Amino acid sequence: MDSETLLARITDYASRPNPYPLYAELREAGPVVWQADGSCLVGGYHLIAALLHDPRMSADPRTRGEVTHGLPFLRLDDPEHHRLRTRAMRPFGPPHSPGRVDGMRGEIDRITKDLIVSFEAGRQIDVVDDFAYPLPVTVICRLLGVPHEDEPLFRAWSDAIVAAADVSTEVDTAETDKAGEQARMEMGGYLVNLAEQRRGKPSDDMLSAFVNEPDPAMRLSREDLAMTAVLLLIAGHETTVNLITNGVLTLLRRPDQLDLLRREPELLPRAVEELLRYEPPVHMRERIPHADIDIAGTRIRQGTSLILVLASGNRDPKRFHEPDRFDPTRPDNQHFGFGSGIHLCFGAPLARLEAQAALRALLPHLGTAQLVQDPPPYRQNAMLRGPRHLPIQL
């Protein structure tokens, strides 16, 4: 099939259970592969790594002339990106210190145990609805200071915002974009209102820390607070749901590796890193050149949409030995599971803690568990890829 249709075929829902043969086709097609819609795909590990660290690459959609306002720092370039990211990270504690996230370790274990209580032999459960979704949602609610009873409200907002962020080849995404923008405004208003209730009445949560920041130079404007809080709430659970669910699915498909982890649970941190490479929660990111540039001998004009297929880079045989094999003992595992460069996911330490706690709690139950449906039904989103449900029989 024509390489110009690769993005359309990757984003086609029929490819969701297994896009990896298409990623192999992408790597074979060349370092840079033009698409029918004028975008470019990049699937090789070394070129993706170079572009993620290239200051000529922008994450900001305004670089290609889009009119937009109120962007989260995930979609901004330095110095604005650095300014907002630094303020957002401040309540987490200084880099390389235990900080707020490490202090959540005991809390994460308690939440995990509470969820596991209902797992009884002979019962069918949905790993997503019964475990992988409620765990990170509960954690991020407690970190931010969001009432857990409001979860159905922000779940609907999250779904709309994530749908609008997907890399899609549909001709008309105007309706999805409009719904996403509306949800972002409503969710931002909700979170700013929650934060304002804590102004002058500090409590031990991040919204309170934002509005009670003592250093005037580090305070967030109302708009920045809205965008940052929305980003933290969504990023704090969406990707971790996929990481945990993809992990359970991978282990149930590979009973030999599941047995290895049950015998040697000390391998769990390395197993989580391998899952981030083998079945990453985020499959692609967009970058836009600030100016006309040459990439691997191809002339790319300023404003072109470059889709970096991170999940393809993670399976590149030029970087990883036997890349299509899941190996929890793999050494030298510099994956793109959390991206790379200035936009490296700053929630990575929290996601690692949650995934390790989740799999540690689930391992005793998975030895005799069986998949009810394989492949399971997947979420619509091609960029944030993971099962929508994962029914298993305990």
Give a short synopsis of this structure.
Helix content is 47%, strand content 7%. By secondary structure, the chain is of the alpha+beta class. It has a 5-stranded mixed sheet. A 3-stranded antiparallel sheet has the order 4-10-9. A two-stranded antiparallel ribbon has the order 6-7.
Q: What features would you describe in this structure?
A:
The chain has 394 residues and is of the alpha+beta class. The protein has a single domain (3-393), classed as Cytochrome p450. Helix content is 47%, strand content 7%. The protein is built from 17 helices and ten strands. The protein has a five-stranded mixed beta sheet. The protein has a three-stranded antiparallel beta sheet with strand order 4-10-9. A hairpin with a 2-residue loop joins strand 6 (293-295) and strand 7 (298-300). Helix 6 (105-116) packs antiparallel against helix 8 (134-144) and helix 10 (174-196) packs across helix 12. The longest helix is centred in the middle third of the chain and has 23 residues, at 174-196. It is globular, with a radius of gyration of 21 Å.
